[in-house]
Amino acid sequence: MEHTSRALPKIRASHISKVFSNGKERVEALRDFSLEVQEGEFLCIVGPSGCGKSSFLRILAGLLPASSGTIEIQPGEDPGKPLTSMVFQEYAVFPWKTVLENVGFGLQMRGVPKAERLTIAQSWIERVGLSKFIHAYPHQLSGGMKQRVGIARALASDPEILLMDEPLGALDAQTRTLLQEEILRIWEERRKTVVYVTHSIEEAVLLGDRVVLMTAHPGTQKAVFPIPLPRPRDLKVMATAEFGELTYTIWEALRGEVLKAMKLLGET
Length: 268
Ligand SMILES: Nc1ncnc2c1ncn2[C@@H]1O[C@H](COP(=O)(O)OP(=O)(O)OP(=O)(O)O)[C@@H](O)[C@H]1O
Ligand SMILES: [Mg+2]
What we know:
This protein is α/β, with parallel strands linked by helices. The chain has a single domain (5-267), classed as P-loop containing nucleotide triphosphate hydrolases (Rossmann fold), CATH 3.40.50.300. It is 37% helix and 23% strand. The protein is built from eight helices and nine strands. The protein has helices spanning 53-61, 99-103, 105-109, 114-127, 143-156, 173-190, 201-207, 241-267; strands spanning 11-22, 25-37, 42-46, 68-73, 84-87, 161-165, 193-197, 210-214, 221-226. The strands form two sheets. Strands 5-6-7-3-8-9 form a six-stranded mixed beta sheet, with helices on both faces. Strands 2-1-4 form a three-stranded antiparallel beta sheet, with helices on one face. A hairpin with a 6-residue loop joins strand 8 and strand 9 (221-226). The longest helix has 27 residues, at 241-267. The protein is globular, with a radius of gyration of 19 Å. Adenosine-5'-triphosphate binds next to strand 1, strand 2 and helix 1.
């Protein structure tokens, strides 16, 4: 018996459009945006502010309906596991729950028994370096720590696809670098399918197998850049000429879109 699963991408988004209408106002966030993501691929999306990146991830997560177009996601073998889980742009942790309770939340919702839930949550808390804070509440944590909680929570639920919306965007440069290393390390262990939105081209090149560049609002696909840097990767790769060239090539393509986006903002 031959499996031809490679013919089926893990995610196929076809001709997605999204129009928000608030009363008389219509905002066209996405226009005819198509994208395929292979199983086990780390796909990064970059694009100017307001081009519809978060909207697209929300559509993938099923949190927002598309105005037109289709999303096909290949389910995994275990129907008990969630298809997607999301790490949000802003820290999305429950302030009234401890780190342990936050990380275990998705598992609790799925009815995973308490003992198993604690073991899984604890191991992810360890992996993201928060063991000392396992019983702390979010207000006792720094921004970087809260974002680690969000990442651990998404990973603990062991989704088929991890959706990450600028998970490190709100952090200082040093914490961001540390977490980039952690994300690389954790991803190399499991090779989950990841769709990762970032403003940082360096981050996209460091983490991604491919980088999709979106146009300014309304967002559509402008270009795709394969990132042939060897794996497993670590931060050393950033010191190579190849890394510099890839980053510069993408910046050249993005530059015009950013300028366009700024002009669009200036008009409103
Ligand atoms: N709920 C909403 N109602 C109306 N307009 C919205 C809504 N959500 C997003 N938009 C608009 O849709 C467009 C795309 O927004 P989105 O948040 O997806 O962009 P983004 O690429 O994630 O931007 P950023 O990089 O700043 O996070 C923007 O013009 C935004 O104002
Ligand atoms: Mg966004």
